[in-house]
Each structure stands twice: as C-alpha cells, then as structure tokens.
TrEMBL record:
Gene3D superfamilies hit by this protein: Leucine Dehydrogenase, chain A, domain 1 (3.40.50.10860), NAD(P)-binding Rossmann-like Domain (3.40.50.720)
Species name: Streptomyces oceani
Lineage: superkingdom: Bacteria
GO CC terms, sorted: cytoplasm
Protein name: Valine dehydrogenase
Catalytic activity: L-valine + NAD(+) + H2O = 3-methyl-2-oxobutanoate + NH4(+) + NADH + H(+)
Length: 350
C-alpha cells in the first residue's frame, strides 16, 4: 500500500477501506485534498474486476474532484467513494445504511453524493445515517437529480468551444455526436436540439437510445461509439459514458474538431491531451465542463436554490474560455492549462 503516498498517485490526504460483513459492503473512500474545504464527491457503485482496480478508481476520481471543485469556484476539496460489486445484485438499504455510517465516522471531512450506480433514492437512505450527504430527493430536503445541471454545464462548455473555434457561442448547424445518453446524455440532447444542432447518439443500452428516439425522432442513431467517432462531418464528439473514452485508437480515428462531454477521466493515459492538440482537436477538459452536478450538490448544503446553482453553472462557459486562452498563451494543451489553474487555486488556499 506504500504506493498510496507516492506523488504520482496525487498525494491523497486520507484513504479509508470500509467493510461490513452483514450487508456485504466493501468500499473505498478517498480524500485527495481539503485545502479549499471539506472533500466533496460522489459514490460510485460498480462491479470492479479487483479491489486494486476499485482503489485506483477511487484515487483517480478523488484527485479529479479536487481539480473540478477548485475550478468550479467551490469551497470544497476533492473526495470520492466507490462501493465494490454489482449494484443490481448487492445494493440494499442495509448496505447503504452501513456505508452512510462509515461516511459519518469521518465527521464531515468527506461529503458524498450520487455517481455511476447510485441514485437520489440511495442518497436518501445514506442520509438517514449521515448528515454529510447531498444529492437527496426534494422530499428529503435535497436538490434531486444532479444530472440536470451536469448536462447544462457540458452545454456551456460546448458553447465556449464553439466560440473559441468558430467565433460564436452556438452549436446551430453543427453535428454533435453523443456517446452515452443515460442520466446526463439525454438532457444534453435537449439543450443541443434547442440550440439548433444536428444530434447523433449511441449507447450500449438499447432502452436509453429508445427513450431519446421516442422523445426526439429527429435524432440519428449510430451503431456504436467506434462508428460515432469515425462519422464524417462530425463537429463535436461528446463522451458521456464511463472514463478512458479518449485512447490512442479513438484519437487517431476522430473526425470531430471538438471533444466536450460529461464522462469523467476521459484521457485514457498521459499524453493523450497532446495527441489531441497535435491533431487540431480542441479538448474541453472533462472536469471543467461536467462540474454542473457538483455545483448543484454543493448548493444543497446551503438549502437548495436551483436558480442560484444554475447561475453558477452558467459560469462554466467563461471558465472554459479562460482555459482555452491560457492554453494558447502558455503553449500547452487545455488539459494542462486547466490543471495549472486548479493547482494555483489550491496552493493559494493552502
């Protein structure tokens, strides 16, 4: 476990391994930084291949939350939790309550919320045991589904990308391909259609595609992600499923001029951001543009006000533009410029 303290892992402040035999809970809570305030980040429930994979994911996601929260202008550091197992088989009120007790034992150093595999109703259960829980239902004093503002923020990032590349903050007349039309992606479809974009979608779950087609018959469906990234005339590619979407093969095949999506940790390995830049692809850093959800759950801690949270999420457009400008000034890819801005904010706070 000594590698946890290695700077290459991000220098996390605290990592907690949680186990409750009665409910089958096995979880990792990772706190990367509390320089800006209590660590805030969601709980992912996923069938990891190994405990090592779960730990690595928690560490990467927690570090990403530090950077995301810093650039979203929040008074929060970064943390993340992962629950190991298939939620369809393992999730129970007993397990979620046990998890809530572990989060509560940290005394507010970590504030949790929804992520892949967890939902508003799950956070309501966790909140019975832990007051440091956001993403709850409106009936329980929460803000409800954070994917609404996540999608809105990604759309603001796309508008910034369009302004930087094409001179106007609109996607009107552009072809936008969305990989993953689940919780966030289907809201993003609506923003783009309202703005006058042509939208193409794909998803591994047929029911997700059907839901979009039923609501918006004008949307085109593509067989899979591989076909989507190779589509001729694509202007924007939006990865909105799991991480690692931008690997060597995908970057080499991309036809789009812009990559801007909701998925976390899109760069499969270091160096991908330079490959994108070398190919003339404008990459809107994922943790900058997908911060709408964390802006929403952070606002919930103050007594949720949707208008206030949406106004803060609107600022994602300006932040993204500032990152593009800094990237050009420093002669680095936008992902590097974003990291520098975030690190600067954390260092100043620290």
């Amino acid at each position: 476990m000594h590698t946890l303290f290695h700077s290459a892992q991000g220098g996390h402040e605290q990592v907690v391994l949680c186990q409750d035999r009665a409910s089958g809970l096995r979880a990792v809570i990772a706190i990367h930084s509390s320089a800006l305030g209590p660590a805030l980040g969601g709980t992912r429930f996923h069938a990891y291949a190994s405990e090592e994979d779960a730990l690595e994911d928690a560490l990467n996601l927690a570090r990403g939350m530090s950077y995301k929260n810093a650039l979203a202008g929040l008074a929060h550091g970064g943390g993340k939790a992962v629950i190991i197992g298939d939620p369809a088989e393992l999730k129970s009120e007993e397990l979620l309550a046990a998890y809530g007790r572990f989060v509560a034992s940290l005394g507010g150093r970590y504030v949790t919320a929804c992520d892949v595999g967890t939902y508003v109703q799950d956070m309501d259960v966790v909140a019975r045991e832990c007051r440091w829980t956001t993403g709850r239902s409106p009936a329980n004093g929460g803000a409800g589904d954070s994917s609404v503002l996540t999608a809105f923020g990604v759309f603001q990032g796309m508008r910034a990308s369009a302004e930087h590349l094409w001179g106007k903050p609109t996607l009107r007349g552009r072809r936008v391909g969305i990989a993953g039309v689940g919780k966030v992606g289907h809201h993003l479809v609506e923003h783009l259609l309202e703005d006058g974009a042509e939208v193409l979608v794909t998803d591994v779950r047929p029911e997700s595609v059907e839901r979009v087609r039923a609501a918006h018959p004008e949307v085109s469906v593509v067989a899979d992600t591989d076909a989507l990234v190779r589509t001729d005339g694509l202007d924007v590619y939006a990865p909105c499923a799991l991480g690692g979407a931008l690997d060597d093969a995908t970057v080499a095949a991309l036809t789009a001029r812009v990559v801007c999506g909701a998925a976390n940790n899109q760069l499969a390995h270091p160096g991908v951001e330079k490959d994108l830049a070398d190919r003339g692809v404008l990459y809107a850093p994922d943790y900058v543009v997908n911060a709408g959800g964390v802006i929403q759950v952070a606002d919930e801690l103050r007594g949720f006000d949707f208008a206030r949270a949406k106004a803060k999420a609107t600022q994602i457009q300006d932040t993204t533009l500032a990152i593009f400008r800094r990237a050009e000034a420093d002669g680095v890819p936008p992902a590097v410029a974003a990291d520098r801005l975030a690190e600067q904010r954390m260092a100043e706070a620290g």
